[in-house]
Specification:
The chain is of the alpha/beta class and about 325 residues long. Helix content is about 35%, strand content about 25%.
Length: about 325
């Protein structure tokens, strides 16, 4: 996938460009419907599938409180690439850019710069100054410049509308199973391992890899989770505590991950943590010994959950090959 981070970097039209536009926070199952449609249409005309997105998220710029992101830009790029898109344009979003009228955006970017041959958008998409670039406007622009506009319907899973808003609600509630259904994958946090208080191993007996949350991160419900930890290209089981560690009176919100059967020094290294299941709320213990006893119980439960996960995965693969 070719990535552009500036409109000016695109020097010529893409062959038979089939384009979609969106914020694509989470790159959930609904977004995947858009990407699948664009890729299919582009291949049918031996053209180029193009996705346009924005960084930062427009609501982070336009709203005082911003928005908590399901996925950061790095993860969004990875997921869009996995969908088979040929070209990704990431437009830097500013208050000045937000003032761009919809018709100017269509004429200068979609038509002149990209050479759009077909536009694919979601059922509720709108953009441009005052969100004037709605479906009706886009279809009129398409008639004017000679490109069709395909509108992809709302996508439902078990009668549940797939949306970034609903996924955020599930994550905040700790409902990782429902979040996974709408995302099409496990909800994931990622970051660089920080040096913490170093109590996990020496004091409690369970060493942890600590991640700090950024201001824009969507923080799941505080408590303990069963996890998969991806580090150095390998996947390990683990448990994660999100919170303030009340047993020791901490004041900073952190994510502390104990990785099973792991002893490498990974301070300063990136890890990815998939949240599989919420186990229990965070609570204050009388001291390190009581906390260690509870963690030992959490580990046993987590290993059972991970074993079931592996069993379900194996059955799923077996079913595919036997049909």
């Amino acid at each position: 996938m070719k990535i552009y981070t500036s409109i000016s970097d695109i020097s010529q039209n893409f062959p038979n460009a089939c384009v979609t536009i969106g914020n694509f926070d989470g790159v959930h199952c609904g977004h995947q419907q858009l990407f699948n449609t664009v890729v299919r249409k582009a291949r049918a005309v031996k053209g180029t599938s193009v996705a346009i997105t924005f960084d930062p998220h427009p609501l982070q710029v336009l709203l005082p409180g911003g928005i908590k992101l399901i996925s950061n830009c790095e993860q969004k790029i990875e997921l869009i690439e996995m969908s088979g898109i040929d070209v990704l344009l990431i437009i830097p979003f500013t208050r000045e850019f937000a003032k761009t009228p919809a018709d100017e955006f269509v004429a200068s970017l979609l038509v002149q710069r990209l050479g759009v041959k077909e536009l694919v958008v979601g059922y509720d998409y709108a953009f441009g100054k005052g969100r004037s670039g709605n479906i009706e406007c886009l279809k009129k622009q398409g008639e004017m410049y000679g490109f069709p506009v395909t509108v992809v319907d709302a996508f439902y899973i078990h009668d549940q509308l797939v949306s970034s808003t609903r996924i955020r609600e599930f994550v905040r509630e700790g409902d990782m199973s429902s979040a996974r259904e709408l995302l099409g994958r496990f909800y994931q946090i990622r970051g660089t391992v920080q040096i913490g208080k170093q109590r996990g191993g020496p004091v409690i007996g369970f060493p942890t890899a600590n991640l700090k949350f950024n201001e824009e991160d969507l923080v799941p419900r505080h408590g303990v989770y069963v996890t998969q930890v991806i580090c150095n290209g390998k996947c390990y089981g683990g448990i994660l505590n999100i919170g303030y560690n009340p047993t020791f009176g901490e004041e900073q919100l952190v994510a502390e991950t104990h990785i099973f059967d792991f002893s490498e020094d990974i301070y300063g290294k990136p890890i990815k943590v998939n949240l599989l299941k919420f186990l229990r709320s965070e609570r204050k213990f009388s001291g390190p010994e009581e906390l260690a006893e509870q963690i030992a119980k959490d580990v046993l439960v987590a290993k059972k959950v991970l074993a079931e996960q592996q069993k379900d995965l194996a059955l799923s693969f077996a079913g595919r090959f036997n049909t």
